[in-house]
Amino acid sequence: MTSPLVSVTGLKTSFFTQQGEVKAVDDVSFSIDRGKTLGIVGESGCGKSVTSYAMMQLLEPPGRVVGGSALIDGVDVLALEERQMQHIRGRRMAMIFQEPMTALNPVYTIGYQLDEQIKLHLGLSSAESRERAIEYLQLVGIPAPAQRYRDYPHQLSGGMRQRAMIAMALCCEPDFLIADEPTTALDVTIQAQILELIQDMQQRFSMTVQFITHDLGVISELADQVMVMYAGRTVEIAPAENLFARPQHPYTRALINSLPRFGQRVQRLDTIEGSVPSPLDLPTGCAFQNRCVRVSPACGEKPPLRTIDGQHRVACFNV
Amino acid sequence: MCKQTPPPSSTPLLEVDNLKTTFPIRRGLLLRKVAEVRAVDGVSFSLNRGQTLGLVGESGCGKSTLGRTLIRLLEPSSGAIRFEGEDFLACSGKTLREKRQRLQMIFQDPFAALDPRKTVGQIIMEPLQVHAIGNRAQQREQALELLAVVGLKAEHINRYPHEFSGGQRQRISIARSIMLRPELIIADEPTSALDVSVQAQILNLLKDLQRQFNLTYIFISHDLAVVEHVCDTIAVMYLGKIVEMAPRDTLFTNPQHPYTQALLAAIPQVGRGKRRGRLTLGGDVPSPIDPPSGCAFHPRCQYANARCSQQTPVLTPVTEGDGGDHQVACWLTPP
């Protein structure tokens, strides 16, 4: 067994708002083996993106990491100074986003933005970095890369912009890529191209990937391991095939069953009654208890994540 | 299960014939028209009462423009719309207003669709006030009744839209849309902005309302799994045209158009396991300002031949046998 490249332990992140402390991520732990993909799923506000922003040290006030560690290849990135972090971000770990314009600067050309990074991290000359930038634009499937190198972001289509952002994230061959809903805003045929591209690049550079999405279908086709989050906590984590074949947590089950699926003709979809509790006012104990079909008196306590079968872990008293 | 037998001797609720909607592109100081975008480019179909037609396709295919043209939020440049057997495009003034009571729309973004300065009660009573139906007390009574129907509480009537979650806001917009007891509802991506568990609630609600009020739906979505769940007939659009139209089961088991096939293959599915080597379409959807010649899909089609780039295929029945309700616009499908 190889040691995991990424190892997050007891991560806690809070937003200190005027209404009080919002525990966006509450004691989350996971690890990812080298070259593998962890999928993080959950609905809006479950903390899946905040987990990733925290790991990149990209959280902005009033958000703050209040506990835990995140080891990337043995280095706790949460403990690094901003100056040190700048050498890690883009070089050892990189992130791609749902909206490529969050990562691309509209007033610089695509080429300039790739060059800047390559020069900084790899210390190449201008000519060398230009060559490398064009090579990566080609690698991500952008036609006529030498021309696109001179284009500004707004001159590209949505799918092409997404590719340019991926080229930017990958041009220094990071060991670890965090993908935060990178295909959510795209059409399905373009989504298929981008997923194929990410998997291609992963294989090529034996990259470790943390993929965040609300789309269970995407996760199912991409991930080795899946973590399901609800209200800032991990409710279930398991190898992908186990999770989809034998979901254990009532929330995971309900989530999978609420999805309309191909070839499956049902009159009514299963729903999860009620809505996610306000993060300012979480119930003590299990956060899912007010919507759960299997709720019992034990749920007043916070359920620990326990192993039920090999690598399959669930935070529920009633499975 | 299947609702395939149309009610006897009824004309279709909605018939659309060769409908075109274009947007002018204006340039220069005098804003002269230099070109036009054919957003909807010759669409024809008919829809029976109580049925649901799904319009699917990727961004820019014209599905939303078609939806808006059907209720005349946009005026078509040519073609015909017959609603309940009458020429809907010829209606104006009072008759148009009357007809419009029978056609309603639900939008994707329930926050943008609701006036933030009005209470829920004011929002859902507004259609009654516009059409001067009933007195204040009756309107309020109806509003309360509909709140219950869409799964909201009576006390919600005095609250404002920002106090609700996305799913609840969509319920408010649905309540407003059925207030006038319409025949046809056009739902434009009604669940795309919602989380999956909430999406399921709204899809169930739409199905319940359809049964309860005998509604006819046009359901616009990019999500084929959702469309499969709610629709009887599905039309696949590409660059302003319907490229394939078929009853739900036929479309999913026997897709004929290469674009439909690619679209179905591209959708990620739960529980199929890790996948590589997806059959992907190359490139992007071309610009509708300057669509490719012949079949608009030919530059991305792996089967395209010389004819596809020269002549535009028309929607024709795939086989004679099945009543001609499976139609495809492709030169390569055997006639």
- Report how far apart the termini of chain B are: 31 Å
Task: Tell me how many strands of chain B there are.
Answer: 12
Shape of chain A: globular
What is the chain-wise order of helices and strands of chain B?
Answer: EEEHEEHEHHHEHEHEEHHHEE
Task: Describe the main β-sheet of chain A briefly.
Answer: 8 strands, mixed
Q: What's the CATH H-level superfamily name of the largest domain in chain A?
A: P-loop containing nucleotide triphosphate hydrolases
| Average predicted confidence as pLDDT of chain B | 89
- Extended strand count of chain A: 12
Strand count, sense and closure of the main sheet of chain B? 8 strands, mixed
Rounded to an integer, what's the Rg of chain B over CA atoms?
Answer: 21 Å
Describe the protein in words.
The complex is a heterodimer of chains A (319) and B (335). Chain A is an alpha/beta fold. In chain A, 30% of the residues lie in helices and 25% in strands. Chain A has 10 helices and 12 strands. The mean pLDDT of chain A is 91. Chain B is α/β, with parallel strands linked by helices and 335 residues long. Chain B starts with 13 loop residues before the first strand and ends in a 7-residue tail after the last strand. In chain B, 43% of the residues are buried.
Helices and strands, with pairings:
The complex is a heterodimer of chains A (319) and B (335).
Chain A: E1 4-17, E2 20-33, E3 37-41, H1 48-55, E4 63-72, E5 75-76, H2 82-88, E6 93-96, H3 110-122, H4 126-139, H5 145-148, H6 158-170, E7 176-180, H7 188-204, E8 208-213, H8 216-222, E9 225-230, E10 233-239, H9 240-245, H10 250-257, E11 306-309, E12 312-314
Parallel strand pairs in A: 3-8, 3-9, 6-7, 7-8
Antiparallel strand pairs in A: 1-2, 1-4, 4-5, 9-10, 10-12, 11-12
Chain B: E1 14-27, E2 32-47, E3 52-56, H1 63-70, E4 78-83, E5 86-87, H2 93-100, E6 103-106, H3 120-130, H4 136-149, H5 166-178, E7 184-188, H6 196-213, E8 216-221, H7 224-230, E9 233-238, E10 241-247, H8 248-253, H9 258-266, H10 306-310, E11 316-317, E12 327-328
Parallel strand pairs in B: 3-8, 3-9, 6-7, 7-8
Antiparallel strand pairs in B: 1-2, 1-4, 4-5, 9-10, 10-12, 11-12
